[in-house]
Design goal:
35% helix, 9 strands, 233 residues, 21% strand, alpha/beta, Rossmann fold, 7 helices, 4-stranded parallel beta sheet, 5-stranded mixed beta sheet
Length: 233
């Protein structure tokens, strides 16, 4: 992701003033003079990076997932310190359109005799499961559903149809070389309806992150893709 983001940002006329990775690690003593930072790291590092950028008044775009249990605390920290944060579980325009479609189709399926489930497939290097995108998808579906109240990560020996009717099951698979596939499925006794998004590469994620960084510059607050894309409620 870092290499793709660097290439895109340079092509769009931006200057990369610093890069950090496992070979050149970011530390609390790091000095940084930048207009905005983009962060794709790991769940255990993300909150530290966010707090450091807030303290240094460097607007930050983060695409790291797996830390959202701390989201409310981080949001309050940004608010208390006049920080600038843009966070998204997925920066792809297509995925965010997919999110909006999922809400609408779920409302259509309310009161219909279908069971709902989610399948997500990612590359084997992805550490968190289910993916942040799958969790956001599940939250959108639950919000739009008249019966679903929570989600659960199912294992290979669990059968979706045995899950409580108020629970949305998510299956997570890890296959080498898969950028990201998400399927929202509705199944009845007679048919199956699927809404699916399949990423061809990581280019869509990187493009969204760079556009978000351009949009975030000069703003204060905590934002997401709905703010950037200006979707109507």
């Amino acid at each position: 992701m870092g290499q793709i983001i660097e290439k895109l940002a340079t092509e769009r006329g931006h200057e990369i003033v610093a890069k950090f990775n496992s070979q050149t690690p970011f530390t609390s003593d790091t000095k940084l003079d930048a207009d905005v930072a983009i962060e794709f790291s790991s769940p255990e590092l993300a909150t530290k990076h966010i707090q450091w950028c807030v303290d240094q008044q460097v607007p930050l775009v983060t695409g790291t997932t797996g830390w959202y249990a701390e989201y409310d605390t981080i949001k309050q920290y940004c608010t208390d310190h006049a920080g600038s944060l843009f966070t998204a579980t997925n920066f792809s325009l297509g995925v965010n359109l997919f999110f909006e479609m999922s809400k609408r189709i779920t409302r259509l399926m309310n009161q219909q005799p279908y069971t709902t489930s989610i399948l997500e497939i990612h590359h084997t290097e992805k550490k968190d499961a289910p993916s942040g995108t799958a969790i956001t998808l599940a939250e959108n579906v639950i919000e739009s559903s008249s019966s679903l109240t929570n989600w659960i990560l199912t294992t290979s020996d669990q059968i979706i149809h045995e899950v409580d009717s108020n629970t949305l099951p998510i299956q997570a698979q890890r296959i080498p070389g898969v950028p990201g596939t998400h399927v929202l499925q509705f199944e009845s006794e007679v048919d199956i309806i699927k809404l699916e998004h399949e990423a061809k590469s990581r280019l869509g994620f990187a493009t969204g992150a760079v556009v978000a960084a351009e949009w975030l510059y000069g703003k204060t607050g905590v934002f997401g893709m709905r703010d950037l894309l200006n979707f109507e409620n």
